[in-house]
Write a structure and sequence with these properties.
There is one protein chain. By secondary structure, the protein is mainly α. The relative contact order is 0.19. The model has no long low-confidence stretch (mean pLDDT 85). It contains three helices and two strands; from the N terminus they run H-H-E-H-E. The two termini are 30 Å apart. Strands 1-2 form a two-stranded antiparallel sheet. 33% of the residues lie in helices and 7% in strands. The chain is extended and about 50 Å long. The protein has one domain.
């Protein structure tokens, strides 16, 4: 499995650069961490069946346009707990 694919599926990021450029890369990582939010939700599906469930995060189009360089990175699914 490709590292970039894994990062995209789980809402993560891959920072890869040459050793000479690690200073700016670390600064970008710090900037991303400072502007990160962790939304949470409670599923309305109460079945505890261990199935994979899709997640989708939508942003209001007006808010999307008003924010400069808004980037959404999120998991695409989760596994429901089993009873």
């Amino acid at each position: 499995m490709d590292l970039e694919y894994l990062a995209n599926e789980t809402g993560g990021e891959v920072f890869a650069d040459k050793p000479k450029k690690l200073g700016p890369t670390f600064q970008m990582l710090i900037d991303h961490l400072r502007s990160r939010y962790n939304p949470a939700f409670v599923s309305t599906n109460k079945k505890r069946d261990g199935t994979t469930r899709k997640l989708k995060l939508d942003v209001d189009p007006v808010r999307q346009k008003s924010q400069d360089k808004l980037v959404i990175k999120a998991r695409r699914s989760y596994i429901a707990p089993r009873s």
